[in-house]
Design brief:
610 residues; alpha/beta; five-stranded antiparallel beta sheet
Length: 610
Amino acid sequence: MKLNKNHKLLLLAILITWIQTYIMYKFFFRLSLASAIEELLILINSLGSILLFYSFTYFVKESKQSWVVIGISSLFSIVMIANTLFYKFYDDIMTLPILLQTDNTGGLGSSVVNLFDLKVLFLIINLPILLIAKHRLKDESVCKTSFFKKYVITMIGAYVMTFSCTYFSGLPILKFTYNREAMVKTLGVYQYGLYDLYLTITNPIDYALADSNELIEVNHYLKSNQIEPNAEMFAIAKDQNVIIISLESLQTFALGLEINGEELTPFLNEFIQECYYFDNFYQQTAQGKTSDAEFITENSLYAADRGAAFFAKSNNHYESLASILKEHGYYTAVFHANEPEFWNRDEMYVSLGFDQFYDETFYHLTDENSFGWGLTDEAFFDQTLNYLKELPSPFYAKLLTLTNHYPFELPDEYRYNSLGETSSDIVNRYITTVRYLDEALKQFITDLKESPLYENTMIVMYGDHYGISESYYDALAQLLQEEEISLNHHLDLQRVPFLIHLPNQKEGRIFSNLSGQIDVKPTLLNLLGLDVNESISFGHDLFSTNRREIVIFRDGAVIGSDYRYTNSICLRSDSGEEVDRSYCEKLEEVAEQELYYSDLILNKNLLRFQ
C-alpha cells in the first residue's frame, strides 16, 4: 500500500511510542508478570489507546498533520517520563489527583534531579527521529479513505485483543481500581489515565448521592468485627500529655543494623528497651506518603485510593484522634518546620481538629541550621521543646521530622558516620541521615527528661513510610549482605518502627503481633482512658489479647499470620514459598471489604451523617 508523507510519519510515531511504552513497562516499571498471557498483555494493551490518541491528526488540515503527530508524540513522552520518575520513588502509577497537588512542587528540586538517569533519555528519542523523518520522508499517492478505514479496524482489533487477553488471564477488569498495577496490566497506562479522569469527574456525583444508610452499613460491619481493647491498659496514661513523633522515612531494618561494627541507631536501640516496642508494625501509606501516615494514624481509616486525602478530602468531617482529645480538654498542636501549604496541611489540620499548626514561620531558620528540605532535626527539636513547655496541659502534640528525607543529603559537618559503600548514592546517604535522626532524637529525649514534661508525658514514635524504594533494592541487598530482595522480603521491608513510652516507664516489652498504622488511634485512645468504640476505626488496640492477625495495604496486598498476598501472588509468610492463590482467598476478601468501606467513608464524606 502506498503512503503519503503524513501517513508514514504517523505510522513511525505510533511504532516508536508503542516500543517506548513496552520498554517502560518491562524495564522502568516493576510489574509482576505471572504468565505468558500477562507478558502478551503489556505488549498489546497500549496499542489501542496509542492509535486512538494519534487519530486526532485526522481532524486538522493536512499541511499541519506532521506537526500534530510530533506534538502528540511529545505528549506521550511527557506522560512516560512523569510516570517513570514517579514510579521510581513511589512504586506506583501517577494519578490525576497527584498532578493537581500544585502546592507540593516547592522543595522538590533535588528529589526530582536524583530520580533522573540516562535511561530516561530513551523516552525522548522519538523527537529527533521524527523531526529528521519529517524532512526526509517523501509523498506517494494514496487513497485516504482506505488508509483511515484500515487504521480504525486496526485500532478496534487492538482493543478486542486486549480485552480478550485480559479475560483469559483472569485479571479483574475495573474491579479493584486501587490496585493500579493490575489496572495497568489490563487497561494500559494511557487507558488507565482516561479512566482516572472519569473517576475524578464522577467523584462529586458520588458525594452528592451519598446517604446515611451507607454509614449505617459501615457501622454494622465494624461492630460485627469489633475487638475489645485491653482492659488492663485502659486509662493507664489518663490525662497525660501526648507527644507523637513522625520519623521521616525510617524503616525497621535500620534498627539494630550494624555497619562496620557500629550501630546505625544506637539511641533507639537503647530507648526501646524501656518502651513498648512493636517490631512487626507496617506502614500502610499510598501516594500521600507522610501525609497518608498522618491521616491513617489520626483517623484509623485507610489512605485515599487515589492521590492524597490531605488534598482531595480536606473539607470532610473526621473523628480524628486530635478532635476526640480536643473534646476531652486537650490542647492540640502540630509542629513541622515546613511550608504550611505543603500537603495542604494548613487546611487539613483544621479539619482534623488541631488548635495550632507551628509551621516554618514559627521557627528561626538560618544558613547554619537549614539545608535540603529545611530546618535540621536537631534545631527543630531544640526550638520545639521551648514551645512544648508553654502549651497548656494536657496537650496532644505531633512533631514531624524532616532531615531523613529523600534524597538524604547531609552536609559533612552533620554526619555522625561515614557514607555507605553500596552501588547507590541514595542508599549510601540514607545511612548517614538515619544516624543523624537517631542522634537528634537522643538529644531531644535527653532535654525532655530534664524538663518537668517528661514525668507526665506519653511519648509515641512511628516511622511514616519506607525510605528506600524498590528502585534501589540491589544496593539495599548489598547493605544488608543479602543476594537479593525477594518478594517476601519486600513485604517485610514495609515494616517501620512503632514505640510507646509511658510516663516514668523503666522497663519495656517487645510485641511481635501483626500491626500497622491503622491501629495507632484505637491504641492511644484506650491508653488515655477513652472509649475506643465510640468512633469509626478500622484498626484495633495493639495491646488487645485477641487481635486478628492481618495487615492490609492500600493496593490490596495483605499480610496474614500464615499467608501473604500481593500482585496476584500468594506466599507462605514464613518461607516466602509461592502457593496456590486459593490459600489467600480469605485474606483477599477481608482486604477488599475493608478498603471498600473505608473508601465509602472518605469519598462520600459519610461522617457528616454521624
